Amino acid sequence: MGENLIKNIQIENKNNKFLPERLVLQWSGIKYTFSKRSLIFFSFSMPILGSLIYLFLNMSFNSWVTAIFIKQVSYLLDLIFNIKARVVINPDLIAIYLPNSSRSGRVLTSCYGAEVISIFIGIILATSSSHDRKHDMNIIWRKTKIIIITILSTYLSYMFRIVLMLAFVHYGMPMHIIHDSSYYLITLTSFI
Question: Quick check: keyword Transmembrane in the entry (predicted)?
Answer without folding.
Answer: yes
